[in-house]
Amino acid sequence: MNIKLKCVYLKKDETNKLQGNEANSDELVTLRVGGEKKGRFNYHHFRVPLKATVEIHYEIEKPKGLLRLIFHITNPDLSIHYYQWNDEKQCYLGAPLEQDIIKSSSFQRILQGISFSGKKHFSYIVNPPQRLKDLLN
Question: What is the pTM of this model?
Answer without folding.
Answer: 0.74
